[in-house]
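Please go through the sequence line and token line underneath and see whether the fold suits the sequence. See right below:
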Amino acid sequence: MSTNKPNSLGLSLERLKRLTRGMEGYVERGQVTGLVLLVSRCEEVAALEAFGAADIALGRAMQPDTLFRIYSMTKPITSAAVLMLLEEGCFRLTDPVSEYLPMFRDTDAAAGCPITIYQLLTHTAGLSYGFEDTPLDKLYQETLWQIDPEAILPHGLDPVTHDHRLLTYQSIVE
């Protein structure tokens, strides 16, 4: 493990070792073929270690600088934006989504109450991809799919490949 004095960064060396054992366990149990662990604090690296294989077929071990293709990063980035706005006091987690997106006015979450920002963040709002014949899917087809994707998606992204749950989220951030 490459460390820069974790104790001086306010981190426990024992806990970092436990984290390392946990990562080794993921590889040993075959849950992942390989991974890279990076723990930092105050812009200082406390732990950097590679586990397992980067390419099983070529027998190439994972390295700390191995490049990864990471999918579905729009949701965590949008979530971070939502949390930043929450921290600034722009809304409350209990606010109904319809307060910001009027097309949700008549929509109820699975619990039978208006969909809240909290439910969007925790993926418990009952929203779907919009391809079925449910009341929420009809809402998507009639309203959300009518949102101008150019106004929501970053330039150059194809609205067909981005699900409408994410567009809902991004609309609130907007």
About this structure: The CA atoms of residues 90 and 123 lie 21 Å apart. The helical segments are 13-28, 74-87, 117-121, 135-142, 149-152, 164-173.
